[in-house]
Design brief:
Elements (H helix, E strand, L loop, with lengths): L2 E9 L3 H13 L5 E4 L12 H6 L20 E4 L4 E5 L4 E4 L4 E9 L3 E3 L13 E2 L4 H9 L6 E5 L3 H12 L3 E6 L15 H9 L3 E4 L3 E7 L2 E7 L4 E3 L2 E4 L3 E3 L28 E3 L6 E3 L4 E3 L4 H15 L13 E6 L2 E7 L8 E8 L2 E8 L5 E7 L5 H9 L8 H6 L14
Helix pairs in contact: 1-6
Cofactor: FAD
Organism: Desulfosarcina ovata subsp. sediminis
Protein name: Pyridine nucleotide-disulfide oxidoreductase
Length: 420
């Protein structure tokens, strides 16, 4: 194949990539922008894909309009195209079909893929899914008519949303969770009590402290899941939600510094000139814990992508990182927010918990008691944004600690400054 040229090349057509494309176009109205997207679909809003399974939305309703009208802006999006190698010495990326695409600046925003534990046998069977893409959702929805019982492996947020999508379609669902409780990455078992009750009330069966060791199948697909306690659950569908892994394999031999993901400085630049990174594939910084982290949060990907796009056109926009835990959503109509450091150790933190009818709140201060470093709200999430501000800005809390603990904090406690 031949060589093509684009001033800006973006590898990855999801949140970070499309946010970067929009940011570039805002500052450079004429530079050529080419987005390489592995998926066959035009860019879409990934958090909505469980609604395709439930039947509440169609694929066209998930079009990624929030990152700008890229077609009207003259942004070329090559769908169904995959990067095979980065040739940074020659400022080009090689695609799987052999095309060599040259660039002046390139963003690596290849995202992540579902992790399928290798110790679970039978994961290649028909009817085994890891809900990550629109195609996954389509195939999952297509199998519902053959499914009376689905088993979800993992108690994370996406698996819970997928479980409820199936429940809404009349499928019986069992959640198999190795951890002591659901949402273990976002909160401690005690924090999840109200959410667990909501799951039980909704008719979802939850099994904790057990793991799958195998998946049984026949010519028609999945027939059951074998657990490590010897029990077998008959089912016709399995959904694996055991985390993600960054898509970095194509960078082997490129010279890009890769640890768990792609390393970048605070301006989203990698160790190679003209090469930037953003989103799930990038290693970023947790300003609360002071540690490097990777996060698969959509809002983080958009924010980091915009920073990268601005830096690619010559601005100097710092990306300040994100909390290792920062999630605001609802499960079984139970809203919750988890942010900052929420997994605690005796003696290392000052912890305040309050449970009331239909609500739960946990506040985590550092061991000096002077700084709020984490919070969990379930049910009543009023003013959670103010608590996020206190955590993010590392505000001394002596003057407002009583209000923080009593949940009477309000905008007046922050003077005339902007709280975002």
């Amino acid at each position: 194949m031949g060589r093509e040229q684009s001033q800006y090349v973006i590898v990855g057509g999801s949140a970070a990539g499309m946010a970067a494309a929009q940011a570039i176009r805002e500052k450079d109205p004429t530079g050529t922008i080419t987005v390489i997207s592995e998926e066959p679909d035009a860019p879409y809003f990934r958090p909505l894909i469980p609604f395709l399974v439930s039947g509440k939305k169609q694929a066209h309703e998930m079009a990624l309009e929030g990152c700008g009208p890229y077609q009207a802006a003259g942004i070329t999006v090559n769908t169904g195209s995959r990067a095979a190698a980065l040739d940074a010495e020659n400022n080009s990326v090689v695609l799987e079909d052999g095309t060599r695409l040259g660039y002046k600046k390139i963003l690596l925003a290849t995202g992540s893929r579902p992790y399928v534990p290798p110790d679970i046998e039978g994961t290649e069977a028909e009817g085994v899914f890891a809900l990550r893409t629109l195609d996954d959702a389509r195939h999952m929805a297509a199998r519902i008519d053959q499914t009376g019982h689905a088993v979800m492996l993992g108690g994370g947020l996406l698996n819970l949303k997928a479980a409820f999508a199936l429940l809404e379609r009349g499928v019986k669902v069992t959640l198999v969770v190795y951890s002591p409780e659901v949402l273990s990455q976002l909160m401690e078992p005690e924090d999840a009590t109200l959410i667990r009750k909501a799951l039980d009330d909704a008719g979802l069966t939850v099994m904790t402290g057990v793991a799958a060791v195998g998946i049984k199948s026949n010519a028609t697909g999945v027939t059951g899941v074998v657990l490590n306690n010897g029990r077998e659950l008959a089912c016709q569908m399995v959904c694996i939600g055991k985390g993600v892994r960054p898509n970095v394999e194509f960078l082997a031999g490129s010279g890009i510094r890769v640890t768990e993901g792609i390393e970048a400085d605070r301006y989203t630049a990698t160790n190679l000139p003209g090469v930037y990174t953003a989103g799930d594939v990038a290693v970023t910084h947790d300003p609360v814990a002071g540690t490097p982290i990777m996060t698969a949060l959509w809002t983080n990907a958009v924010e980091m992508g915009r920073c990268a796009g601005q830096n690619m056109v010559g601005l100097k926009t710092a990306y300040c990182g994100t909390f290792g835990i920062l999630n605001a959503t609802q499960v079984a109509n139970e809203p919750f927010v988890a942010m900052g450091i929420v997994h605690t150790k005796d003696g290392d933190h000052e912890i305040h918990r309050k449970a009331a009818a239909g609500s739960y709140r946990k506040l985590v201060f550092d061991n000096s008691g002077d700084h709020l470093i984490g919070a969990v709200f379930v049910g009543d999430i009023t003013n959670a944004g103010l608590y996020r501000y206190v955590i993010r800005e590392k505000m001394p809390t002596a003057a407002i600690k009583r209000q923080i603990i009593e949940h009477t904090l309000h905008y007046g406690h922050f003077g005339t400054g902007s709280v975002q």
